[in-house]
Amino acid sequence: xxxxxxxxxxxxxxxxxxxxxxxxxxxxxxxxxxxxxxxxxxxxxxxxxxxxxxxxxxxxxxxxxxxxxxxxxxxxxxxxxxxxxxxxxxxxxxxxxxxxxxxxxxxxxxxxxxxxxxxxxxxxxxxxxxxxxxxxxxxxxxxxxxxxxxxxxxxxxxxxxxxxxxxxxxxxxxxxxxxxxxxxxxxxxxxxxxxxxxxxxxxxxxxxxxxxxxxxxxxxxxxxxxxxxxxxxxxxxxxxxxxxxxxxxxxxxxxxxxxxxxxx
Length: 264
Known about the structure:
The chain is an all-alpha fold.
């Protein structure tokens, strides 16, 4: 699947950030898990600022989001999640040195947090260090406190594809599917993997689940068209082609359809 599928990865930490403030990892002997009532006023204020930053970033107000993160860290310089979110923002901006500095600082402050480990792994995968990234994904997945393993599994699957290891990628995506069967990213990758293996019925199954999520990007529609063509369902193929023409008339996928480049 195309890189556009991973636009949401940058905000993947958002829900985890809101939860992470309430716990600090596995409970040690004779210690209780920390809750929001244990936070100082400065820490609570920092969390609010971080939530605002995420909201602004989702609205593509980058500078405002970065300012809110700065205010969060002024209130609580040890807020590891703030560094990780800032790393994600810098990563999308192409500021890789700043991104890595922030990811490493977040892990230094909270090394047992699997969300932070996963985010740094994704950064490594995006910057040509795929093999190094895999160890961070596995570290996150081996953490029993991890509440969203499908994120690391999907990331590990994508990274495995970049390493030209489709068998490993499929295993990761199948595990991700078991945790989140409705995740369109997981289903899209499984559809493409089964198409490449010429298992067109399974490809149809997974691409259908993507489209049930109302995901109608050009690459999804194009894969669906090619799948139906392989299965000989010309009516379904024509219907999907109409949607591709109507939704994405200027796409490379529609140009390929017009050329009849079904096997390129």
